[in-house]
Amino acid sequence: MIETSLLFILLVGIFVGGAAGFIGSFMVLKRMALVGDAFTHVALPGMAIALLLHQDPMAGAFIALVIAAIGIWYFEETSRIYPEALVGIFFTTALAIGVLITPEAELLEALFGNIEKITPVEGVLVIALSIVVLLVAYIISKKLMLGVISEELATSIGISKRKIDLIYLLLVATTVTLGIRFVGTLLMGALVIIPAASAKNISGSLGSYYLLSILFGVVSAVAGINLAVLFGVASGPAVVLTSIFLFLTTFVAKKFFRGE
């Protein structure tokens, strides 16, 4: 029974890690790594409010993240303040509020994840939504990348960069919600960013960059979950440390093989 449960959790982890890696690949290219990391902290007050109202904390996290995604999208288009400054003003405040109002018994799980809380129904839902995230991200990938390369060119051929950016941010919100059980609100940003950064170290083309980002996300999740079970530690730090190990390995490999 334990093995079946672990295999199911690993299956869910494969899809979450893959979705996080693919979504993160665009975030790294858009130079939104700091924004993406802090963005995940917004989930905590959403979870806290849901817990206080005796509702599903994942639903609370998703609502908070969607609101934050729309907020980022709106202020990027209408404000002269850089996104990094907005992060410093709003999202760290959200983290502080979340820590204050989250029930103490739930705080560590919310911050660092707890794979034991994943139910079969939740796991199936996470897998299904991860597939949706991957498909939608693939569909908009060319338009999204064109907007990164040249906003003027994208606009000239009829691509609405604002619309694509909003869809992307909503995908980020969904992905973060899916991964909270595994790595928690404090570390989910790392699962989104680090696999893509690792892939960028050694990829030779855009296609290989996407594939390696997904692969490293999957490896980070699967290896991290196994380490968490093996050593009886929180899954979040285990997954993130695995990601960091992959990043350092690819960084050294790049220096060695390219003679940098």
TrEMBL record:
The keyword Iron does not apply. Keywords: Cell membrane, Ion transport, Membrane, Transmembrane, Transmembrane helix, Transport, Zinc, Zinc transport. GO terms for cellular component: ATP-binding cassette (ABC) transporter complex. InterPro entries: ABC_BtuC-like (IPR037294), ABC_TroCD (IPR001626). The keyword Iron does not apply. Its main location: membrane. GO terms for biological process: response to zinc ion; transmembrane transport; zinc ion transport. Pfam families: ABC-3 (PF00950). This is High-affinity zinc uptake system membrane protein ZnuB. It comes from candidate division WWE3 bacterium CG_4_9_14_0_2_um_filter_48_10.
